[in-house]
Write a structure and sequence with these properties.
The complex is a heterotrimer. By secondary structure, chain B is mostly helical. Helices cover 71% and strands 5% of the residues of chain B. Chain B has two domains: 2-64, no CATH class; 74-293, MetI-like fold (Orthogonal Bundle), CATH 1.10.3720.10. The chains are: A alpha/beta, B mainly alpha, C mainly alpha. Chains in contact: A-B, A-C, B-C.
């Protein structure tokens, strides 16, 4: 084709395309996929027969809620809608001519940009669900809820107490926990059987860990035995980058704290940090039950190895139970069945590192907020309170694979029916939370650097610790308190 | 005799020098290319195989890696949006940038080339200066500007905003190139047309324009590819997955903390590179001229 | 007739005015776009560099440009120049390492590269093939280039480690992670950018070499010079100006570039914005500004960091204009003998 003919064709296409694109832009093309917008009206229907004061049209209060997550998490918005339905029924019974209408939007990924745009235009929703508390609070996106909480204290008595720590920032409470999870220690029952453990002993293990009768030191010995006998490639696996388990958990177990309750500053407890680094060093370099290059391994390899029984212990999360059923990691079975899991995989709290210390786990809740542009803040607050109460909390937890945020949820029949959920529920009594601080990111960076070095044997715990301290001192300045 | 010995000696010397020369060429110019060639080979091999041996030998030919064309993308537990809306977004962005750049630069290039006005030289110098200025450091200010214009977080409109910005970034170079094409047209042709009774506009349309069509073709292809491969603007300003473009999608798929399905990813990469391959094989000379004439980095 | 003259002069006036306006009409779209994409952002960057814009006052700022919640301050520059930001000196070191190393590839290695390809090799087809091959990293979409490198350095599936071992590099010297282990990560950063940058020099120098009058070279060859001697005594001295051009252009370009680093190190750590760049020691100046803005919402401070580059950029461009003059900047490869 002649060069100039080609050029003409291209030019024509281009001009047509501009016209087409402009046209489309004018149309404000509807988003091609997942942002679901549904308007649900929950007004009184005319078929209700017994109503006496039917005459006046009800005043409608519109509440908008935005949330994100994977498809199973859509209950995050649906539960607010159900909460509104409950309120509407009460209002109807009281003969009050007001109804609440909930408008939902559910995103699949990060919607912070849409939120910023909405705020800038003055069109922010009333309720949002996400994490990111420090940025939302500092940016003036959400309001503090202390007043409403004390006013409606009775409705919040059953919130799992430790979770309050995940919503408190700079002395105020900014959100209500929406759902959570926990981080247990998973173990391979089939390997333990091969080591000669009886069924009873295996089933009693979680209990013993809970009581502190079995510690991490003991399990390291078990791991060594399994490795020596060639039953597994490695004793322990943990996550390949920074996270709550086992790093923060170990630090907490050695009685360290990360945030000073009075000032909100970040804390480095020298003794606790040194001990947790020492533990990891011992596991990787001394007892050799942990791969030295654990940090940086791929997730696929981690899950695959554990699911195929090549690793005895895995510092994982409660959501992995469902993940193993949905993603084909197993070499022959593909997706695991629930039966296979109960048969071969057990879970317990993360055991105390040494006798005398406590077993525990960590949770990182998803949060509901009331935005600063809501015209009905107290109503929005009540809706999220209701949306996280027992029956609705149970529905979300069971269907989306999370843990509940209220202790009363554990008694709901739906919840009790789910074996996994029931057996894992006790962990909420032993859980902890991460600190909320804008500079925690820098803390974590320095921390993972130290962990990587000691596991690889590139530095002794003392050396890595010294480097961590000096990095933190320079990065955090006076936002850091060092405890000897 | 002395002379024949000298000749033999210098012949051997010349031979040695030739060998040395080729050795140098191989070491400097060929050996470093080995990784590049390997990578490209891998891209093609892996996208059609379920496994690759020794990195590049395919085993198990399959089209499974291309399943994203007809089903949704899944990596581990994370599910991604369907490929076609994302491709549409990328296409819209590329076409928009291309159309806008052609339109604006043809007008501007013509003015700079043919018209007399005050400030012509300083303007040309300014445009060249822009060419050298690194635009990528202005991302923060552009972020604020997008917000102020109400184009941030607005789905398709954000992509439109990005299109405007990207076009603006390409225009200095494009204008300069088109100006070059206009410069190459001798005045006489235009003069002849004018003398023959054409209006200036008519002369422009039927005499000048055809002469610069190759330039326009080159610019439009180049800006199209530029918009097609645009990464950082979309990555920074678009958070909603429904409005991703292909480069951003690929980036996120690499980043599933190394949860990588190399077959899927290579197929996706190859799919994305198709326009680049097409354009380069059909309009090589034209594009190389641009690369030679107006390189940014 | 009087009226005819009036008509004539009126039309003439009109033509004169329209002739004056017409160029600006043609230029208007271009000027608007340049204002939007270049001038406005630069002015804004200057302004923002002196403010404390962050997540705290961002919403207020969008609603009202002159909101009292945004304060004018020179704190950002104190952080940069007085060392109040402890990480800045590290960033500066990495940037210098990066620019100097990649520059030596782009300006010097490329010189030998182009002599090899454009002069030592006489076969046009072979030369073309090699030139196109070297252009591939530059022409390939950036994200694909990043994808290919991500694969290449993968310890299990990629070939880099295997190839190095084949040429005799002992396994113990190889890093377990090219992304995370310093100084391998930094070496990788230099190489990745070097491949892309080398083609710039190659093109400029090749054009220059091709424009050397053949008689010059032929005369030397007839006198018995080897190709090496020709390269050393004739070609290289003639390439002084092109070399200066490449060095100048690439310095500014490298100071501000971070896209490839972001694509490779950002995605490797599940950390979104420049996830593991800090740990890997590849946080160059421009990337630091980016990460400060978009990871930490510190827009004011990030703008100040960018502003330093903006100023450096403007100064350098001014210097280039002075040294090269307008003409040479446009045709650096033309050798005038």
């Amino acid at each position: 084709m002649e060069k100039s003919t080609l050029a003409i064709i291209i030019a024509v296409i281009v001009v047509l395309a501009i016209i087409g694109a402009v046209f489309l832009a004018m149309q404000q093309a509807a988003p091609p996929t997942e942002a679901v917008t549904t308007t649900v009206t929950t007004t009184v229907t005319q078929t209700v027969t017994k109503t006496v004061t039917a005459a006046a049209a009800p005043e409608v209060i519109k509440i908008r809620v935005w949330a994100s997550g994977s498809p199973v998490d859509v209950t995050r918005v649906n539960n607010v809608e159900k909460a509104a339905e409950i309120l509407n029924k009460m209002l109807e019974a009281a003969g009050v001519g007001v109804r609440i209408e909930v408008e939902k939007q559910f995103f699949r990924g990060d919607y912070m940009d849409k939120l910023t745009a909405a705020f800038a235009a003055g069109e922010a929703p009333d309720i949002i669900a996400m994490k990111n508390l420090a940025a939302l609070a500092d940016g003036g996106y959400v309001i503090s809820l202390d007043d409403y909480i004390s006013k409606h204290k009775i409705l919040l008595e059953d919130v799992v107490p430790v979770l309050w720590g995940s919503v408190t920032y700079k002395g105020k409470i900014w959100a209500l926990p929406q759902d959570t999870e926990a981080r247990p220690l998973y173990f391979r029952k089939d390997v333990l059987r091969q080591l000669g453990w009886s069924e009873e002993e295996i089933n009693a293990l979680p209990e013993k860990i809970l009581k502190g009768e079995v510690t991490l030191k003991d399990l390291i010995e078990v791991a060594k035995e399994a490795m020596d006998k060639g039953l597994v490639e490695w004793g322990f696996y943990h996550r390949p980058n920074f996270g709550g388990t086992p790093f923060i958990i170990l630090y907490y177990q050695y009685e360290g704290i990360l945030q000073d309750p009075a000032t909100g500053k970040l804390v480095l407890d020298k003794s606790a940090m040194l001990k947790m680094l020492q533990t990891l060093y011992d596991m990787a370099q001394v007892h050799k039950v942990l791969p030295p290059d654990m940090i940086g391994t791929s997730w696929r390899k981690i899950h695959s190895d554990f699911v195929n029984g090549k690793v005895l212990f895995w510092f994982g999360g409660t959501w992995h139970w469902a993940e193993w059923q949905r993603v084909p990691y197993h070499e022959t079975l593909g997706n695991l069945t629930e039966d296979y899991e109960w048969e071969n995989i057990g879970f317990a709290l993360v055991p105390a590192p040494e006798p005398g210390l406590k077993p525990m786990t960590l949770s990182s809740p998803y949060l509901y907020y009331v935005t600063s542009q809501s015209k009905h803040p107290e109503l929005a607050f009540l809706l999220i309170t209701l949306a996280t109460s027992a029956p609705l909390d149970a529905e979300h937890a069971v269907y989306s694979g999370h843990l509940p945020v209220r202790s009363t949820t554990l008694e709901v029949p739906l919840y009790k029916e789910s074996k996994f959920h029931s057996e894992v529920a006790y962990m909420l009594d032993y859980t902890s939370v991460e600190p909320i601080h804008p500079k925690f990111g820098a803390y974590k960076d320095a921390w993972i650097t130290a962990i990587t070095k000691v596991e690889k044997g590139e530095a002794t715990p003392e050396q890595a610790f010294e480097e961590m301290v000096s990095t933190l001192k320079t990065e955090l300045g006076d936002e850091l308190i060092i405890k000897e | 005799m002395k002379s024949s010995k000298t000749i033999k000696y210098s012949r051997t010397k010349a031979l040695l020098w030739t060998i040395a020369k080729y050795l140098v060429v191989i070491i400097i110019a060929v050996v470093p290319l080995i990784p590049i060639w390997t990578m490209i080979l891998w891209l093609f091999m892996q996208s059609f195989s379920s496994k690759v041996i020794m990195g590049i030998l395919p085993s198990g030919l399959t089209l499974n890696n291309w399943r994203f064309l007809w089903s949704s993308l899944k990596m581990g537990l994370k599910e991604y949006p369907n490929i076609w809306p994302i491709t549409f977004n990328t296409l819209a962005l590329a076409l928009g940038v291309s159309g806008l750049v052609v339109f604006v630069s043809v007008l501007g290039g013509y003015a700079l080339s043919r018209m007399e006005f005050k400030g012509r030289t300083p303007l040309m110098e300014f445009i060249i200066a822009l060419h050298a200025f690194p635009s990528i450091i202005l991302l923060i200010a552009l972020f604020v500007i997008l917000n102020k214009l109400g184009l941030y977080g607005k789905g398709f409109m954000t992509l439109v905003g990005i299109m405007l910005i990207k076009a603006g970034l390409e225009i200095p170079m494009a204008t300069w190139i088109i100006k070059g094409f206009f410069d190459a047209i001798p005045w006489d042709i235009e003069w002849a047309a004018l003398v023959d009774g054409c209006s200036r506009w008519r002369a422009w349309r039927s005499v000048i324009l055809p002469q610069v069509l190759p330039g326009i073709g080159a610019i439009s292809i180049f800006s199209f590819l530029s918009g097609w491969s645009e990464f950082i603007l979309v990555f920074t300003y678009v958070k909603n997955e429904a409005y991703y473009t292909l480069p951003v999608l690929i980036y996120h798929m690499i980043g599933e903390y190394k949860f990588i399905d190399w077959g899927l990813l290579s197929a996706l990469g190859l799919f994305f590179t198709i326009p680049t391959l097409i354009f380069f094989s059909t309009s090589q000379k034209l594009l190389l001229r641009i690369y030679v004439g107006g390189i940014k980095r | 007739m009087a009226s005819k003259n009036e008509v004539y002069s009126y039309g003439h006036e009109k033509a004169k005015i329209s002739r004056r306006i017409l160029p600006w009409l043609f230029l208007a779209p271009m000027l608007t776009m340049i204002f939007l994409s270049w001038i406005a952002p630069v002015i804004l960057t200057v302004y923002l560099g002196f403010t404390d814009l962050s997540i705290k006052n961002f919403l207020a700022f969008i609603r009202d440009f002159f909101t009292p919640e945004v304060h004018i301050t020179i704190n950002n520059f104190r952080k940069i120049f007085l060392g109040e930001d402890p990480y800045i000196s590290e960033v500066l070191k990495i940037t210098v390492l990066y620019v100097v190393s990649v520059l030596s590839i782009n300006a010097f290695y490329a010189l030998f590269l182009s002599i090899s390809i454009a002069y030592f090799i006489k076969n046009e087809i072979l030369s073309m093939f090699l030139r196109v091959s070297w252009l591939i990293p530059r022409i390939m979409p950036g994200i694909i280039y990043a994808l290919l490198w991500n694969w290449f350095i993968d310890p299990d599936y990629g070939l880099l480690n295997r190839m190095l071992m084949m040429v005799g590099v002992p396994e113990s010297m190889l890093p377990s992670s090219w992304l995370l282990d310093k100084p391998f990560s930094q070496l990788l950063m230099i190489i990745v950018n070097g491949y892309v940058g080398a083609s710039f020099g190659m093109i400029v120098y090749t054009a220059a070499i091709k424009s050397i009058p053949p008689d010059l070279i032929n005369a030397a060859l007839v006198d018995g010079a080897s190709d090496f001697q020709v390269a050393k005594n004739i070609i290289i001295p003639l390439l002084k100006w092109p070399m200066l051009f490449v060095i100048s252009w690439q310095t500014l370009s490298l100071l501000a570039s971070y896209e490839y680093i972001l694509m490779i190190w950002g995605s490797g750590g599940g950390g979104g914005y420049a996830g593991i760049a800090k740990a890997a020691g590849v946080m160059v100046w421009s990337l630091y500004s980016y990460s400060k803005a978009f990871s930490e919402y510190a827009y004011g401070y990030a703008s100040a960091i960018s502003l330093v580059l903006v100023v450096v950029g403007i100064v350098l461009i001014y210097i280039y204009f002075k040294i090269f003059g307008f003409k040479k900047l446009m045709a650096p490869s033309r050798i005038e003998v």
